[in-house]
């Protein structure tokens, strides 16, 4: 079965993926940070038992694992594939995860909050994901009453999640727009409408690969539909502007663009060593080149799958021994040579 | 403009310093700015959990020592989370912390969310009053044959009820009257449907 990020979405150009995350707490227990080891274990086991038939009615298979039973490398690899967040990777207390076969649905138990429901899909599909998340939410709620307050909504560990407990996010590819002088201003404008935009890879304001995640800032005082609407509109707005800039660049600098894309392909296809930074920059060029019809490969493929595949823990997982930094760069180049289709 | 410290990255933070009446402008990139000492505002440059950290700043983590002693004695009776701990971590220890610390942080929450009343989804399966309203009997079973349109009405009634409670709390009787009428109207509609 193809995992969610291996599927190609032919929908809106520039949109990579959508994500819905809901956090909930079971009203019978204190929040995870104040539970001791014994209580945590007892709670996770109760949740595991109560949710063991999750997805059965719809024919979906979920596997359950205690996070502590997974190797640290596996947890980091799952974070790189966006299933876990940093809190789940570093978590030391008893915690568990229900995960679907293609990794698009994950329910993490007892990390920052008792229950963290997350759904991922390629393309712009927040509405659809919200529908599905809502069903899982109701299924869990039918078995475990939630900590809820008329005024504050769903009660969560962090005030930044209270209310709906919803984080809706969309990853978009903005290689040209982000180079422009007005980009920072554009991001601030989005902030005024309640959508925050941040670079996905690289540190601080360096963003290798030009992938940006747009998500809602506020969780209280807005309905879920309003939140989804804000993020969807911001995604459409930013990708539309990117498309305009790209169209202009094709009209004015087609030769240069073509040259950049083919050079990137050449480097990716023949390199023997590639740093994460370089690989992301060249893959970003290929992504834009494919979308603009500047380059064609023999088979259709998801560039995003390669972007996730070349992250350190996922590469390390392919090897049977620990790799040094140089060896990792070698493994990265080899992975891309193998996975990048012929022209 | 390039950052005046590293001279590599673009400067996107402008810092104005006024010493003895002499104004000096500096331009830094986010990375260099983070390494410098901006006191409580440093949280802004920390990408790990900016909103939470910022909230600590807004709540006045710097001022906790000077604040009234009473605040330091506040403790959640259920989980034992203290005021200082709550301000430091921006984290609730249990559901009851909301009633303990909630009223103390209304202004910060308003700054964070802009609005203090939940208007989104409500849990379908657990609310006694809500379930009574839905089924008319108080049973906790979900009725699958229920008309979806009437279910929407009940949800609306529930939301108006919440608004009514809020209005009464702030002694805003004008809004309360509007809510009360709206609830009456919705309830009538449901009876007519039935």
UniProtKB/TrEMBL annotation, chain A:
Presence of the UniProt keyword Mitochondrion in the record: no
Gene Ontology biological process terms in this record: phosphocreatine biosynthetic process
Binding site for ATP: 17-21, 116, 167-171, 198-203
Gene3D superfamilies according to UniProt: Glutamine synthetase/guanido kinase, catalytic domain
Domain of life: Bacteria
Transferase among keywords: yes
One example GO MF annotation: ATP binding
Domain Phosphagen kinase C-terminal: 14-245
Keywords, alphabetical: ATP-binding, Kinase, Nucleotide-binding, Transferase
Gene Ontology cellular component annotations, sorted alphabetically: extracellular space
Pfam families: ATP-gua_Ptrans
Residues of the signal peptide: none
InterPro entries referenced in this protein's UniProt entry, alphabetically: Arg_Kinase, ATP-guanido_PTrfase, ATP-guanido_PTrfase_cat, Gln_synth/guanido_kin_cat_dom
Family in the record: Belongs to the ATP:guanido phosphotransferase family.
Protein name: ATP:guanido phosphotransferase
Species whose genome carries this gene: Lacrimispora celerecrescens
UniProtKB/TrEMBL annotation, chain B:
Parts of the chain that traverse the membrane: none
Signal peptide: none
Residue ranges annotated for the UVR domain, each copy included: 162-188
Any one Gene Ontology BP term: stress response to copper ion
GO molecular function, one term: zinc ion binding
Pfam families in the cross-refs: UVR
Name of the featured protein: Excinuclease ABC subunit B
Record organism: Lacrimispora celerecrescens
């Amino acid at each position: 079965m193809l995992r969610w990020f291996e599927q190609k979405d032919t929908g809106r150009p520039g949109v990579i993926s959508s994500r819905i995350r809901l956090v909930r707490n079971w009203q019978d227990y204190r929040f995870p940070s104040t539970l001791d080891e014994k209580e945590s274990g007892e709670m996770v086991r109760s949740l595991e038992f109560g949710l063991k038939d999750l997805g059965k009615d719809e024919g979906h298979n979920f596997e359950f694992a205690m996070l502590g039973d997974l190797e640290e490398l596996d947890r980091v690899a799952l974070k790189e594939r966006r299933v876990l967040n940093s809190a789940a990777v570093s978590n030391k207390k008893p915690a568990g995860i229900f995960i679907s076969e293609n990794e698009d649905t994950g329910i993490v138990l007892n990390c920052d909050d008792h229950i963290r429901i997350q759904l991922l899909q390629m393309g712009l599909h927040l509405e659809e994901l919200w529908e599905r998340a809502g069903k899982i939410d109701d299924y869990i709620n039918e078995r475990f009453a939630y900590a809820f307050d008329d005024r504050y909504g769903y009660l969560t560990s962090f005030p930044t999640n209270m209310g709906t407990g919803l984080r809706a996010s969309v990853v978009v590819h903005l290689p040209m727009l982000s180079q422009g002088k007005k980009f920072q201003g554009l991001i601030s404008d989005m902030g005024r409408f309640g959508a925050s935009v941040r670079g996905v890879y690289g540190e601080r304001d360096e963003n290798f690969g030009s992938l940006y995640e747009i998500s809602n800032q506020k969780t209280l005082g807005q309905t879920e539909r309003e939140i989804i609407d804000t993020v969807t509109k911001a995604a459409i707005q930013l990708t539309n502007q990117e498309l305009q800039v790209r169209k202009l660049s094709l009209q004015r600098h087609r030769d240069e663009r073509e040259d950049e894309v083919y050079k990137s392909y050449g480097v990716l296809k023949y390199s023997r060593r590639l740093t994460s930074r370089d690989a992301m920059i060249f893959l970003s060029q290929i992504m834009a080149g494919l979308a603009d019809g500047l380059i064609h490969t023999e088979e259709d493929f998801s560039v995003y799958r390669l972007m996730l595949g070349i992250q350190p823990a996922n590469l390390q997982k392919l090897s049977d021994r620990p790799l040094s930094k140089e060896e990792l760069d070698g493994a990265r180049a080899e992975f891309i040579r193998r996975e990048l289709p012929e022209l | 403009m390039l950052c005046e410290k590293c001279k590599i990255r673009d400067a996107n933070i402008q810092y104005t310093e006024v010493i003895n009446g002499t104004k000096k402008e500096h331009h830094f990139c986010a990375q260099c700015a983070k390494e410098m000492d901006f006191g409580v505002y440093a949280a802004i440059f920390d990408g790990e959990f900016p909103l939470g950290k910022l909230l600590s700043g807004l709540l006045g983590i710097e001022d906790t020592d000077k604040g009234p002693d009473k605040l330091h004695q506040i403790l959640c009776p259920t989980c034992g989370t203290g005021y200082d701990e709550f301000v430091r971590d921006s984290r609730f220890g249990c559901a009851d912390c909301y009633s303990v610390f909630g009223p103390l942080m209304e202004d910060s929450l308003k700054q964070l969310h802009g609005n203090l009343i939940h208007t989104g989804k409500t849990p379908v399966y657990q609310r006694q009053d809500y379930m009574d309203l839905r089924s008319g009997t108080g049973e906790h079973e979900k009725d699958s044959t229920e008309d979806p349109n009437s279910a929407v009405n009940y949800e609306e009634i529930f939301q108006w009820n919440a608004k009514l409670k809020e209005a009464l709390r702030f002694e805003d009787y004008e809004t309360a009257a509007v809510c009360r009428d709206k609830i009456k109207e919705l309830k009538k509609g449901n009876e007519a449907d039935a």
